[in-house]
TrEMBL record:
The keyword Transmembrane applies. Coiled coil: none annotated. This is DUF3397 domain-containing protein. It comes from Jeotgalibacillus campisalis. Signal peptide: none annotated. It holds the Pfam family DUF3397. Keywords: Membrane, Transmembrane, Transmembrane helix. The chain crosses the membrane at residues 6-24, 36-58, 64-85, 105-125. InterPro entries: DUF3397 (IPR024515).
Amino acid sequence: MTNAIAFVISIFIAMPILVYILLFSSAKWLTKNHRYAVNLAIYGATPFVIGSVYFLFLTIWNVSLLWLILIFMALIGIILAFYIWQKNDDFDWHKLYRGFWRMNFAFFLMIYSFLLAFGILYSVIRSIS
């Protein structure tokens, strides 16, 4: 049983877009609310996207860059907190939390796409030569 759970989690980390699609389609089917389904899918898929970026770095360069990922997440939170504080003259933790997950999803999805393309090209070039 634990092997099956580990297998499913590893598939979700390897393909975070699959998590997004599953969460979105499930939420859309259950709630019939498109906006809520997108937000739920983003919030649920973000940890898997971050995990996949970590493992792509580990696979391509054989080095753990968890410290760099955590620094980027902290910087995103700090910049977003400063922006919310300046724009609203009042600090709203709920906006910070939502914005933090959305910005992390967007940032790490871009990094994931780049690393995926780079990893495929790197593997092809390495196998040719």
